[in-house]
């Protein structure tokens, strides 16, 4: 420690501090410059759930769901025009190569796939068994096929009759009929409820690669604009509608960007104006901003180092969240003033006020730590950002500001008026103590009465996707008949083949349910990618040429199709035996590859999984489904809604524990510092009442509370304890000069403004925190004044 | 969520069409009058019906006709079932927009309006059977000839997709009864269905007139 009278070493030490600070800032800037910024929606999904939930989250984060877009072409002249636009847009999308699959109901692009399926029919058809190739089995199959002839479809089937008389192609195709296909009109998919053509697309880029996804979305827009009839009247032209996770991700990135910029600008203007009012000095304003700026740099760099990337949300709102670090500068600039010996004001501040600031910092750290452990990656980043930012800002206030402004700020600005107002409040509020206590009791009663009902928000409440977009999404999904993943069967395996075998076993059980009418249908990967075992068994069912020829002669007796015409069938059945196994890689790139990609994937931790998506139908019963699949190893039934809400309640429960631990940590810190039960009680009292009043207010307003509100409550305690501690300090020292009161008021205003700005954000995760902390912080200050004991109340404004 | 798997082969559509149209669902229910008002009134009264059918199809390239028989039923406004009993058991039913297909012990469900060709025929038929002529006229041009004692109605598809498969249909009957349906397909194949209304139990509550006239299968025309 440098003492007075040693200016040279003081100056050297100052230069050293500034040097270290600047080097650290530069290092932070370098880290930030190399940082990858993301903005995907997964920040709003919880991390590290149990095995079943982890799979679900993996799917939501990086599975097909995160790449699937729903496109609507609505309005315009008529269905023919919409169909034309749909075809042009889809063609352009396919040409772009930015999409793994583009489906609009137009089957003309399926010719190659149809040929491939036909060529591999004896490996793919579930009907191929040894019994089917006995004389009786062959006869049944041929009669079945003949029953299709003499119908409109006969034209398509007849050319294949000699090659596929047992109708294996039919058997495969029947399996691929989706139970909930979209309506088809003018040859393309259309909505049942609105004048709208539909396109379903999967981006090639991963859902988290937002730049690439944005590019793909932009390509859809240009394709749509180009597809509109030239010179069409804009008022009757069709409109383009898009939804799905990729669209939402890009939209929310843009939203976060726009909101963050807006918040930063408004916040800077308001806080800047407030500081100008308080100090009437641009230099003081500049110095006051240094701790915040350093905090932002430190926070961003730390998040980048810890998480390997920074979410846009963190960048956007971290600054606002640590807006309270302006307080450090405010306290310093005001409280270091009035030193008897010039250049020593900072030492007086260090001795009298810094310990309180430091304690306030530690309690805030306890509060923001709850964010780190909230289980949501986005919020965890905000937590780490805030911790690093707060600590860096406090260190800058402690060490850098004394070098730059040893005696605080000179200007007086409007602080006298602020202090007057604060004095009035401080003297007047204690009279309202019993009113506040009464309100607190009423709030407690209300909160206890509402009980668990108060905490009824769900995971959806955290989604940054606006309600209107969610509605459009639900409509488009409904139109396309896309399963919303209500119930899934999930199969795990250590390798591709064992996973496929388990999938086939599950599929057989499900087929039985379908035949009984208890399930409308299901989609499984093994229909286009059978296990090698299943393929081998099917091929082994095929008799050799001579045997088959003999059996066919017997089978076709009396039928209008003589066996002599079936030589091509015999030849192709022999050919099938020499075909190589169908492997997963063979399907890549084609439309069937998209199917395989959707229903089968490699697990990040090793091993493979397949999904069977169900079309429940009217006779569906979850209990019977579970019973049907009972006893199959590696097969699980996942009800997505149940799992997500189960996940959320678990997180809510965990958050309660974490928040309680955080509050306990604050309490222990305060107790260790104050070393007095009486003082501890006096500090805690306003905080408890503030929390109760905020909770009661939200209960009275019928707000549905969730994890983030809970986190907000802890932040009230963390931030509010600063004010309570200052009043405790005032009480103990008996000094309540107008500058201290003014600094307190100013600090509180900046905090309330920062969180108030967050409160009006359109991003639910943030607005929930803001709506709790903004009124809570204000209440904490007022209540700290109200519950302050006589020494402060007696203190008259100095001078 | 797993919408990426929504896949359709042309074959799916054909399989459905084939089974549904094999024999043509048109062939049952008493329903035709020459005055539009009378006809609609008569048809609207018909809440349900059941009938036996026999069918012969003449397919180029096959040595001889294909025979089948079974039961048809209708329940207003939109439930239709065709149950083939011979030569192979097979059921196809449409209820609203849901199509259920049962063949060889396997059941498949899908949506009717995803197969527009089929939907056109089903809607026209439901329109006819439930007394809503607009349903029929939306998909077919119709020409009526004959008299109440022996009429026939020629139908030609309006929709190009359907017209690419079905050349024409001819319904024939007597009074309020449809007794025969002939379909001619593009490519020259042909199917002839003969209907015996009221043959199945508990159905003939609203079929006044000479219902028993057509009990015996008739009109075995040569290819």
In short:
Chain A is an alpha+beta fold and about 800 residues long. Chain A has a domain at about 10-35 and about 250-460 and about 645-795.
What keywords describe this structure?
heterodimer; A: 799 residues; five-stranded antiparallel beta sheet; 63% helix; 8% strand; elongated; disordered C terminus; B: 223 residues; alpha+beta; outer membrane lipoprotein receptor (LolB), chain A; 5 helices; disordered N terminus
Strand proportion of chain B: 35-45%
Corresponding CATH superfamily of chain B? Lipoprotein localisation LolA/LolB/LppX
- What is the quaternary state of this protein? heterodimer
**Average predicted confidence as pLDDT of chain B:** 70
Largest sheet of chain A: 5 strands, antiparallel
Q: Kindly estimate the percentage of residues of chain A that lie in beta strands according to DSSP.
A: 5-15%
Query: How many DSSP-defined strands of chain A?
Result: 13
Radius of gyration of chain B: 17 Å
User: Structural class of the helices, strands and pairings of chain A?
Assistant: alpha+beta
Q: Return the CATH architecture of chain B.
A: Clam
Low-confidence stretches of chain B: 1-33, 200-223
- CATH fold title of chain B: outer membrane lipoprotein receptor (LolB), chain A
Output the number of helix runs of chain A.
32
Q: Name the poorly predicted regions of chain A.
A: 1-5, 791-799
Categorize the overall geometry of chain A.
Answer: elongated
Q: Which structural class do you get from the secondary structure elements of chain B?
A: alpha+beta
Tell me the number of structural domains of chain B.
1
Kindly report how far apart the N and C termini of chain A lie. Answer: 33 Å
The strand order across the widest sheet of chain B is 6-5-4-3-2-1-11-10-9-8-7
User: Could you give a short account of the major beta sheet of chain B?
Assistant: 11 strands, antiparallel
């Amino acid at each position: 420690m440098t003492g007075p009278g040693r200016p040279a070493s003081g100056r050297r030490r100052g230069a050293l501090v500034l040097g270290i600070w600047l080097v650290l800032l530069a290092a932070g800037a370098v880290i930030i410059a190399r940082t990858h910024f993301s903005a995907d929606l997964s920040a709003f999904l919880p991390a590290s759930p149990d095995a079943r939930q982890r799979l679900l989250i993996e799917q939501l984060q990086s599975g097909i769901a995160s790449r699937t877009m729903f496109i609507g072409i609505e309005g315009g002249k008529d269905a023919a025009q919409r169909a034309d636009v749909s075809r042009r847009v889809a063609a352009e999308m396919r040409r772009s190569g930015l999409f793994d699959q583009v489906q609009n109901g137009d089957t003309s692009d399926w010719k190659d796939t149809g040929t491939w399926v036909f060529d591999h029919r004896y490996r793919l058809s579930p009907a191929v068994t040894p019994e089917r190739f006995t004389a009786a089995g062959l006869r049944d199959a041929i009669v079945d096929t003949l029953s299709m002839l003499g119908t409109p479809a006969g034209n398509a089937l007849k050319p294949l009759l000699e090659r596929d008389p047992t109708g294996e192609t039919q058997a495969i195709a029947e399996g691929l009929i989706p139970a909930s296909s979209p309506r088809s009109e003018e040859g393309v998919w259309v909505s049942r409820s609105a004048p709208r053509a539909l396109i379903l697309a999967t981006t090639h880029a991963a859902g988290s690669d937002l730049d690439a996804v944005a590019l793909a979305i932009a390509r859809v827009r240009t394709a749509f604009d180009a597809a509109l009839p030239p010179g069409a009247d804009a008022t009757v032209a069709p409109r383009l509608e898009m939804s799905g996770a990729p669209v939402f991700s890009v939209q929310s990135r843009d939203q976060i960007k726009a909101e963050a910029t807006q918040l930063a600008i408004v916040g800077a203007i308001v806080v800047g104006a407030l500081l100008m009012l308080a100090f009437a000095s641009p230099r003081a304003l500049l110095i006051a901003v240094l701790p915040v700026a350093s905090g932002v740099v430190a926070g961003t760099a730390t998040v980048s180092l810890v998480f390997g990337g920074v979410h846009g949300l963190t960048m956007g709102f971290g600054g606002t969240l640590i807006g309270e670090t302006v307080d450090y500068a405010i306290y310093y600039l005001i409280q270091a003033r009035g030193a008897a010996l010039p250049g020593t004001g900072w030492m007086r501040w260090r001795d009298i006020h810094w310990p309180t600031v430091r304690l306030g910092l530690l309690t805030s750290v306890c509060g923001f730590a709850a964010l780190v452990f909230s289980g949501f990656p986005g919020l965890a980043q905000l937590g780490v950002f805030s911790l690093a930012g707060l600590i860096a800002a406090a260190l800058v206030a402690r060490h850098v500001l004394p070098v730059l402004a040893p005696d605080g700020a000179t200007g007086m600005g409007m602080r006298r008026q602020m202090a007057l107002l604060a004095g009035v409040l401080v003297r007047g509020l204690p009279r309202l103590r019993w009113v506040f206590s009464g309100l607190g009791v009423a709030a407690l009663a209300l909160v206890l009465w509402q009980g668990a009902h108060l905490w009824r928000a769900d995971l959806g409440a955290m989604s940054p996707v606006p309600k209107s977009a969610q509605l459009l999404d639900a409509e488009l999904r409904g139109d396309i008949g896309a399963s919303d993943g209500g119930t899934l069967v999930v199969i795990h395996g250590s390798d591709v083949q064992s996973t496929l075998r388990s999938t086939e076993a599950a599929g057989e059980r499900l087929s039985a349910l379908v035949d009984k009418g208890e399930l409308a249908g299901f989609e499984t990967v093994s229909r286009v990618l059978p296990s090698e075992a299943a393929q081998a068994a099917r091929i082994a069912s095929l008799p050799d040429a001579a045997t088959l020829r003999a059996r066919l002669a017997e089978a076709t007796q009396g039928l209008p199709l003589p066996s002599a015409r079936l030589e091509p069938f015999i030849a192709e059945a022999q050919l099938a035996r020499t075909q190589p196994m169908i492997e997963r890689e063979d399907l890549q790139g084609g439309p069937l590859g998209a199917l395989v990609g959707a229903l089968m994937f490699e697990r990040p931790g090793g091993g493979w999984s397949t999904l069977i998506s169900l079309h429940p139908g009217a006779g569906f019963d979850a209990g019977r489904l579970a019973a049907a699949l009972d006893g199959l190893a590696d097969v699980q039934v996942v009800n997505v809604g149940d799992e997500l809400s189960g996940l959320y309640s678990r997180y809510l429960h965990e958050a309660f524990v974490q928040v309680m631990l955080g509050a306990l940590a604050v309490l222990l810190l305060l107790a260790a510092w104050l070393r007095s039960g009486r003082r501890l009680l006096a500090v805690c009292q306003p905080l408890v009442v503030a929390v109760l009043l905020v909770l009661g207010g939200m209960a009275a307003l019928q707000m549905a509370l969730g994890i983030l509100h809970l986190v907000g409550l802890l932040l009230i305690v963390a931030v509010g304890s600063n004010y309570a501690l200052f009043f405790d300090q005032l009480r103990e020292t008996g000094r309540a000069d107008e500058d201290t009161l003014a600094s307190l008021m100013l600090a509180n205003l900046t905090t309330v403004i920062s969180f108030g700005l967050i409160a009006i954000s359109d991003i639910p995760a943030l607005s929930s925190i803001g709506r709790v902390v903004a009124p809570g912080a204000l209440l904490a200050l007022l209540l700290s004044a109200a519950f302050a004991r006589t020494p402060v109340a007696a203190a008259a404004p100095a001078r | 969520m797993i919408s990426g798997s929504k896949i359709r082969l042309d074959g799916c559509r054909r399989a459905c069409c084939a089974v549904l149209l094999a024999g043509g669902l048109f062939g049952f229910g008493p329903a035709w009058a020459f005055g539009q008002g009378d006809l609609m009134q008569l048809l609207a009264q018909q809440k349900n019906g059941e009938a036996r059918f026999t069918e012969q199809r003449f397919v180029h390239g096959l040595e001889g006709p294909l025979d089948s028989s079974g039961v048809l039923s209708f329940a207003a406004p939109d439930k239709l079932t065709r149950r083939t009993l011979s030569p192979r058991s097979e059921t196809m039913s449409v209820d609203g927009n849901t199509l259920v297909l049962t063949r060889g012990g396997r059941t498949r469900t899908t949506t009717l309006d995803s197969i527009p060709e089929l939907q056109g025929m089903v809607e026209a038929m439901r329109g006819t059977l439930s007394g809503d002529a607009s349903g029929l006229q939306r998909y077919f041009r119709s020409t009526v000839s004959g008299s109440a004692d022996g009429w026939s109605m020629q139908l030609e598809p309006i929709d190009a997709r359907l017209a690419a498969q079905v050349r024409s249909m001819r319904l024939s009957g007597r009074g309020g009864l449809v007794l025969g349906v002939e379909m001619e397909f593009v490519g020259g194949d042909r199917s002839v269905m003969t209907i015996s209304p009221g043959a199945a139990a508990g159905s003939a509550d609203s079929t006044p007139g000479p219902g028993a006239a057509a009990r015996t299968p008739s009109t075995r025309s040569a290819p």
